[in-house]
Amino acid sequence: MDLHLKIWRQKERNAAGKLETYTLTDLNPHMSFLEMLDTLNEQLITHGEVPVEFDHDCREGICGQCGMMINGMAHGPLKHTTTCQLHLRSFKDKDTITIEPFRSAAFQVKKDLKVDRSAFDRIISSGGFVSINTGQAPDATVIPISHELAESAFDSAACIGCGAGHCSNTEACEVECPQGISVLNIARMNFEYNKALFFKKK
């Protein structure tokens, strides 16, 4: 399949950016979106041009690093799918795809599609850690936990920290979430985080 790409190119944070157009031909529809960007970068390097910078890590839908705006939607057209798990078969031959970085005051563009995630990383790391020997894991049946409570805990643990959608009354966070986490659960996590900050200041 052939695709026309309009990709945001920006040399650095303070530089002016613009959409550059590229065309890729003979792509495999089963190729992932990031593999398609890899193919583009190989061609750019071959022609002595600067490759497109973008974030990624696990490429397994776990780390949340690969977030970008695809045709105006976080992660692309498929619900509950990260960018790295999005495949070209979700698009049509000869499609034009617009690819931009996340637009947010907190996620300032560093270069091209790569954004500064340090503000979001500080929120995640503020949860703290335990540096003592806690012994072996207790038997799963020692503390009885209801099925509903366990499922709710799993919903919170499913967050991969992609930072795609801001929690609001419009439920945008639930719509953009690649893990499909309920807005009720996201609101609860925000409440617990803000409560922890309040008591920490005291």
How would you describe this structure to a colleague?
This protein is of the alpha+beta class and 202 residues long. It has two domains: 3-116, Ubiquitin-like (UB roll); 121-130 and 144-201, no CATH class. The chain has five helices and seven strands, in the order ββαβββββαααα. Strands 2-1-5-3-4 form a five-stranded mixed sheet, with no helix packed on it. A hairpin with a 2-residue loop joins strand 3 and strand 4 (73-74). The N and C termini lie far apart (60 Å).
Give the low-pLDDT segments.
Answer: none
CATH architecture annotation of the largest domain: Roll
Radius of gyration: 20 Å
Give the distance, in angstroms, between the N- and C-terminal Cα atoms: 60 Å
What is the number of independent domains? 2
CATH superfamily of the largest domain: Beta-grasp domain
CATH topology of the largest domain: Ubiquitin-like (UB roll)
Brief summary of the model shown:
By secondary structure, the chain is of the alpha+beta class. 28% of the residues lie in helices and 14% in strands.
Pick out its properties:
202 residues, alpha+beta, Ubiquitin-like (UB roll), 5-stranded mixed sheet, 7 strands, globular
